[in-house]
């Protein structure tokens, strides 16, 4: 009887050992399926500073993954998407341009607003024209640079101009807010209408002049995974990363508001 009990116990121990070995073997299997690849993001030019930081953080948290970001005016990015650009994610500086993507059925899931932004006047550090508010931009002799109307910062500029009754006479209208900022930095303009975040990112290269009328044209920033995204799963992870705590922290540091 004792011999039988010993044999049964030994068999049970052997089976348990086999089961443990199978369980241990599942660990490397999950590591082997770790996602790798390149996530291609089309992002509004005003997101450059913050998205560059988020790219670095996302890549660090996802070994083997590369985030490739193309920055431009939102209207230009929509044109790329409708022309068949092979991208995974689109982040717009306004709802109007995102609506064009949705209307064309080129989004995968409902776009989500992840940040808000508003206009600020950028002037050279010495502010030679003494710009103190929005109305000063219309004064004779002020060389002003703004965004073109189809661009979100241009649409916001037009909205403020109409709301205040101040008619602006810009020397040029640019297709991206970063070009407006660059012209002020280069001394080619006395003032430029950009976003709060652009002024913050420029540091001492420009001086920011806030104006209360900017509250009349606050832009919501939506983000979406694109239909037929080559890296759909990773794209969804990137969007959630932007909308999560890390994203809000980085975006907040350059002046974006939480929606």
Q: What can you tell me about this protein's structure?
A:
This protein has 259 residues and is α/β, with parallel strands linked by helices. 44% of the residues lie in helices and 22% in strands. The chain has helices at residues 2-32, 48-61, 74-82, 95-103, 152-164, 177-185, 196-202, 232-243, 245-253; strands at 37-44, 65-72, 89-91, 107-117, 119-123, 144-147, 172-174, 191-195, 207-209, 219-226. The strands form two sheets. It has a five-stranded mixed β-sheet. Strands 7-6-8-5-9 form a five-stranded mixed β-sheet. Helix 2 packs antiparallel against helix 9 (245-253). The radius of gyration is 26 Å and the shape is elongated. Residues 1-32 have low confidence and may be disordered. Belongs to the bacterial solute-binding protein ModA family. Keywords: Metal-binding, Signal. It holds the Pfam family SBP_bac_11. This is Molybdate transport system substrate-binding protein.
Q: Mean pLDDT, nearest integer?
A: 89
Number of helices, where a helix is a run of at least 4 consecutive DSSP H or I residues:
9
Helix content: 40-55%
Instruction: Classify the beta-strand content into a percent band.
Output: 15-25%
* Structural class determined from secondary elements: alpha/beta
InterPro entries: ModA, ModA/WtpA
Pfam families: SBP_bac_11
Organism: Kutzneria viridogrisea
Signal peptide: 1-22
Q: SSE layout and pairings?
A:
Blueprint: H1 2-32, E1 37-44, H2 48-61, E2 65-72, H3 74-82, E3 89-91, H4 95-103, E4 107-117, E5 119-123, E6 144-147, H5 152-164, E7 172-174, H6 177-185, E8 191-195, H7 196-202, E9 207-209, E10 219-226, H8 232-243, H9 245-253
Parallel strand pairs: 1-2, 1-3, 6-7, 6-8
Antiparallel strand pairs: 3-10, 4-10, 5-8, 5-9
Helix pairs in contact: 2-9, 3-4
């Amino acid at each position: 009887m004792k011999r039988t009990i010993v044999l049964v116990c030994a068999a049970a121990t052997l089976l348990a050992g086999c089961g443990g070995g199978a369980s241990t073997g599942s660990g490397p299997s999950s590591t082997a399926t770790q996602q790798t690849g390149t996530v291609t993001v089309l992002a509004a030019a005003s997101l450059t500073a913050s998205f560059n930081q988020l790219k670095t953080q996302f890549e660090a948290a996802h070994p083997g993954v590369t985030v490739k970001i193309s920055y431009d005016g939102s209207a230009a990015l929509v044109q790329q998407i409708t022309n068949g650009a092979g991208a995974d994610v689109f982040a717009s500086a306004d709802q109007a341009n995102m609506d064009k993507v949705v209307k064309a059925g080129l989004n995968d899931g409902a776009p989500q607003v992840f940040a808000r932004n508003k206009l600020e006047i950028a002037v050279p550090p010495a502010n030679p024209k003494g710009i103190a508010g929005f109305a000063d931009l219309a004064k004779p002799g002020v060389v002003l640079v703004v965004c073109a109307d189809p661009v979100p910062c241009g649409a916001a500029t037009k909205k403020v101009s109409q709301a205040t009754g101040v008619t602006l006479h810009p020397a040029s209208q640019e297709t991206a807010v970063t070009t407006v900022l660059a012209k002020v930095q280069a001394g080619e303009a006395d003032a430029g209408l950009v976003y709060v975040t652009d002024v913050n990112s420029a540091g001492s290269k420009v001086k920011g002049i806030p104006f209360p009328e900017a509250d009349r044209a606050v832009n919501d920033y939506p983000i979406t995974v694109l239909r037929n995204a080559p890296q759909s799963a990773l794209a969804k992870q990137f969007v959630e990363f932007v909308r999560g705590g890390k994203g809000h922290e980085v975006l907040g540091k350059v002046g974006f508001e939480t929606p």
